[in-house]
Amino acid sequence: HLASSAVVGNKYGSQIVTFWVLCCKTSPLCSSDNAIVNQRDIIEILNMCSKYFMRFWLILSATLVVFSVSETSSPLMSEEERLNLKEEAKEMFYHAYTAYMDNAYPADELMPLSCKPRWREVEQSRGDIDETLGNFSLTLVDALDTLVVMGDIEEFDRALRLVVRDVSFDNDVVVSVFETNIRMVGGLISGHVMAEHLNQLYGALGWYRGELLTMARDLASRLLPAFNTTTGIPHAKVNLKYGMKSPKLQSSRDTCTACAGTIILEFAALSRLTGDSIFEEKARQAMDCLWSQRHRGSDLVGTVLNVHSGDWVRRDSGVGAGIDSYYEYLLKAYVLLGDEGYLERFNKHYSAVMKYISQGPMLLDVHMHRPHTTSRNFMDALLAFWPGLQVLKGDIKPAIETHEMLYQVIQRHNFLPEAFTTDFQVHWGQHPLRPEFLESTYLLYLATDDPYYLRVGEQVLRSLQKHAWVPCGYAAVKDVRTGVHEDRMDSFVLSETFKYLYLLFSKPSDLIIDLDQFIFTTEAHLLPLSLARLSNLTVVPGPDNQGAQDSDVEYARSCPNAHFLFPGRHEFAETIRRPLKNFVNNVCPSRKTIRRKLRASEFQAGNSRHMGLLRDMGITIMALPDGRVQLLHTSSNAKSSDDAEEGLLFMQEMIELSKLQQEQPDSPPRVVSFLHVVDGHPTTTTIQAGPAQFGLDLKGNIQVNGPVVKATPLRACEQLGNEDEIHGKIVIIERGDCMFIEKARRLEALGAIGGIVLDNTPETSAKTSPMFAMSGDGTDDVNIPLVFLFSGDAEVLLNALHDQPELEVVLSDFDDKDIGKGSIEEVQVEVKGTREGGEETLTAGLDDAGLPHVISIINNRQQGSENLADDDLVTVVEGQQTAHSQLHEQEESQKHQVILKDLEKAKTAEEILVAAVRYVNVRQEQEVARGNTLMTEHSSALIVTELQSLLVKKTASDPSLLKSLLSVHLRELMAVLQQAAPSPSDLDASLHHLLNQLSTLTMTASTSLDESKKPVASQQPSVRGDLQKWDFNENSKLDHLAEKFQEKIRKIKKKYGLSPEHIESISDIQGTVSPQTKDHNRKDEL
């Protein structure tokens, strides 16, 4: 009891009691037959255990000392650590700066995920965010003085020359007055000041003659039309070229308090450096109006007001977004300009903020007219500047408290969310790498010299390196809860974030300029304090500020001295922080991390395991009559409370995923095409594929082709075992284990040019399963295309790859690839080739051969089942040879003669087509060389004549050859003719001419037909009633051939849009519909 009483409230009390009991157990008095009942027994035990007891107290005392130090302070940072962190911060800046200069300059910003420039009105609009951009090299101008802070005079010189040479402002673009002032005008003025300063100190930049100051004046003059209001409050936006006359600005009438109140520093500096008072006058008038519009009872200002009347549109008041930098510029205007009127106004506002808005370490918005009523239950990230402003004010204690609260939020989420609730949950999850927290950390370290803040900065640095670094700069975080990136790197990352991070780890001796001679603007630009000595003589005095001095001045004239408040305590910051230890966690304890079993993005309705997991979560699935699927979550049906909680998360993800997919534009299907050998014949296979809502958009003529390879492991959710085989190839991967876009990112990082995702459910097909678009995660940072194939459809591709390891595929749009209700189409084609050792070797793809993508449906039918029966065609046993002589009457080159000889030597239909295609290619090359981009009518007719002659000649010795050309290879023959013909009408004439020529031939019965190949009568459809085809006599066969041939030509022409004006009505033919319709019955189509 004595020992426990001696350390009441100490976490080690239980350890002391435990020691007491252990000592007692070593004494005979503590046997089961005895009990400690008096003081003498206790003394005897203590005497016996004295040596152990003293050792224990020595250990405990040392432990308590270590505990005290570790709980209230941070370990000192060694000089080596500090220097390493300073250099790392510098490297981080240059990683982002170099990425911008190499990939984006002279554009305003870099898109770090796409690694390309962001141009205004070129990239997809982001709304008001884009009003920061004016096509004036924003990032470089904003980062100029950071180069000086880093000590890089050489690069500063180069950047200055680029700005002077390339940047102009005569752009027809609407910009934010606020953002353009703090980033561009401030950046130009600061760049000018640094150039002059470096010239005076080091003799550098001898060529500079004030060009940046001239540019700043030009730009600020373009902002002045926005100030033409009855109140003097500027419009929020202005057109750089046309002022307020732009049609887009007709509805402009509201602006925020910070937008109007964050101009005085830059405009006053410009007036005092140029001698033109108009800028400071306009900015002062805006500040005066804001002061006059404050609520006289609370001394608070609202967030949004009307520029013409001055009436408040939004009356909520705080220190975050919409108001923040107005307070900052009141205090800094006093520091920079020496005008005490601004200080009196700031003190009045500051007193009101600390009275109504400050609630412990938290800063909560209130209604300006009802200041005891909170207006919202969340805080935004911009209020993180407030502790730094309090340091400048000299009020250190609340600055330490608010900063500590913010740091604990950061420790929970890695970054400070854009907004978080009063119980410290994420409200808005974005984090665009804002600098405000680092700014306050830097200023608190200057004020306290406490190494704790160096450790805070180190953690921020590590978070940036781990969660924001990308190969092309640093990417904003779209949601701190998921860590997903956003394709965005704002200019303030270079002008502020890395500047404050570098300064935090720097000593004054590390810098080439004396920062005590400057003040930071809200964009961390440096303005010289010497401006206070330059009077703006024509400025009209503002209204009387007596109202700022006639009330309680608790914060107005006092500067709380922390050393007086905590006498004898050098570590006063530790004393202030200690009561706030675990403040955030005590208000809202961190929830235990749930290891997710299934995410909405991974869910597959056909996967039995996934269905089982949903049942465990209490989720039931119901198919609606319109084909949609309804998910219902009932927590009481879940297998456990953890499953119920995961079910709720799953439903929330599904809702967000559904919203994301609805926002995505419609994605048409894609196709995967490849040339491979089937039964000895080169064949082009086209497979319908699902698109992706991210990556390269394969629309129109955009396509990607290349060799294909399978990933190892196939699902590509981890490091690949065959990474060296990926570069420059289209990679086959499998669905599952991670998101589609994660697979795409991994492939792109390894140099792949595309990806084909295979379904992981067996025997699925586009014919039986609905096609879908693969969704992303909301961040489209992928630049390669990804397509989806059902597993059943993909077997053809996998088999082809197995047979041909060097297989090449083409990923393209679905347009003009009309494959109807089927999912796979094949067409046998021949391509340009060379003969090596008597073997035909493919040397080029279909496009190289000049053949169009003529395709045919197999739709689960055996290939060739659509061909005509043997007896559908008659055999030509003899014919006229009149056309053959024409071939030798032409003066052709030797190359043509070689190809003609190949035609004559051809023994199969495939060889004929190969030679014909080669001839057409050579002739077209010849015509192009002569200046003709299209084949001439003479050339086209000649090709047709040659083919007719060859057909007639070949028929006399091999009747089956003609039969094969006009049945199995009819489409390929038409493709050759289409390539040779200069226009659809010429093709139409050529086809009819060929048919008429064949119709005039003498037809006789063929005795060489293989009777075993004749089909059974019942297996062949009738064309005219029940009349069987092979019952015709020879003349009837010729008539039937002509009609059948005409039908085929008309149907193929109609499908491919050939000479529609010549197509007769054939609505009575089964399976034929309008060519505009893709979804039609094609079971009898060729």
TrEMBL record:
Keywords: Calcium, Endoplasmic reticulum, Glycoprotein, Glycosidase, Hydrolase, Metal-binding. Ca(2+) binds at T522. One of its GO terms (molecular function) is calcium ion binding. The active site is at E179 (proton donor), D324, E418 (proton donor), E436. It is an enzyme of class 3 (hydrolase). Residues 1077-1086 have a biased composition (Basic and acidic residues). It is found in: Endoplasmic reticulum. Its main location: endoplasmic reticulum. Its EC number is 3.2.1.-. Residues 1067-1076 have a biased composition (Polar residues). Residues 704-796 form the PA domain. GO terms for biological process: carbohydrate metabolic process; endoplasmic reticulum mannose trimming. GO terms for cellular component: endoplasmic reticulum quality control compartment; membrane. Belongs to the glycosyl hydrolase 47 family. This is alpha-1,2-Mannosidase.
